[in-house]
Amino acid sequence: MFKPIEVNLKWTKELAIKASKLYYDYDMKNSSKRYIGWFFIALTQFGIVGAIKHDSFGMLYLSTFLVIYWYYGRWYLRRNMIVRFYNNASYLNDKDLLFILEEDGLHFDDKVIGWNDIYKAIKVDNGVLLQTSFSTMFFEKTSFKKFGEMQRFLEIMKKGDKV
């Protein structure tokens, strides 16, 4: 018999920013996007050689700008976009949410997120990121009602080949 797991959390702008940063960091470390950053670093090295040997600084300026944007600017812009969104959508801020994991999927309000719609569960230091077909959700450790339910949640996701 399957025992449901309840996840109760208060969704705030700060939690949305935290979830986005955790997913952003995970994605930058574990996807092929990191190679783009390495390419920009290689361009910077070519720009340094061009500046030293040929007094040509164009490649150095461009590649330095790309490296700064890729490693620092993207998160800054993304964070500002989230802040602006939550400032305009006050109905989403400080909202109590209850998710229940059952045999047929993850229940939320009157909706069911089926197993086919759940792509991946990612364990992070202070919770679980859940990537679905329509969004990425973050469940902090404190969102699980009982001790050990987060681990059980991850085990169920692992059985469903979602980890």
Structure characteristics:
50% helix, 2 domains, 7 strands, elongated, four-stranded antiparallel beta sheet
Overview of this structure, please?
This protein is of the alpha+beta class and 163 residues long. The protein has two domains: 5-11 and 95-159, no CATH class; 18-88. The protein is built from four helices and seven strands. β6 (127-132) and β7 form a beta hairpin. It is elongated.
How many distinct domains? 2
Cα(first) to Cα(last) distance is 22 Å
- How many β strands by DSSP? 7
Shape: elongated
Largest sheet: 4 strands, antiparallel
Helical percentage: 40-55%
Rounded to an integer, what's the Rg over CA atoms?
21 Å
Mean of the pLDDT scores?
88
Summarize this structure briefly.
With 163 residues, the protein is of the alpha+beta class. It is built from four helices and seven strands, in the order βαααββββββα. It has helices at 13-30, 33-54, 58-88, 149-159, and strands at residues 5-11, 95-102, 105-108, 111-114, 118-124, 127-132, 136-140.
What is the topology?
Layout: E1 5-11, H1 13-30, H2 33-54, H3 58-88, E2 95-102, E3 105-108, E4 111-114, E5 118-124, E6 127-132, E7 136-140, H4 149-159
Antiparallel strand pairs: 1-2, 2-3, 3-4, 5-6, 6-7
Helix pairs in contact: 1-3, 2-3
